[in-house]
User: What shape does this take?
Amino acid sequence: MTDSNTDTQLPADWFRRIDETPDEDFYRAPRFVAHIDQATIDALRAFYSEFIPAGSDVLDLMSSWISHLPDDLNLGRVSGLGMNEAELAANPQLGDFCVHNLNEQPRLPYPEGTFDRVILAVSVQYLTRPLEVMASARNALRDGGAICIAMSHRLFPTKAILAFHELKANERIQLVGHYLKSAGFSDVVLEDRSPPNADPLWLVIGRR
Assistant: This one.
């Protein structure tokens, strides 16, 4: 596995950002806002009820104050990894959490085979070293585990990588599929679960 910035299939410029100041500065103040419409949140929750088996140990990667997990889904461990401690501490669905900058350290701080599912909602556009992060996420999954990356069209423009500014929506979805395939995930599929008259919801799913 090569670093995302040196992958011959992905231009290094794609992983640059308008704002290259430390991410800790940008995420220091908590943002208790929803980043997608309620109908889109409901659609994502409905998908999670299909995607996540009861009793699963789940990692919410790039987490915040809301995880969009169904309230009636009986889960095992639910861990969150994100950038703002106040947001993570306010998330009632997390059993534990850690503050961790994946752009500085793309290796996840979890032992191999810790989780059954990894979810990442509407934040993949901020990863500057996504292939390394996805490889580590795969390592954190148990055999037969799976990851779901949920995408929409909203972003913080100064912190999103250049690829998400330049590429069309379908190309961005294909790019994230490439992340998973390059990281060793199998059965990578792309799904459109967009509700009518609301923010789009595009899903990229892969299995270990």
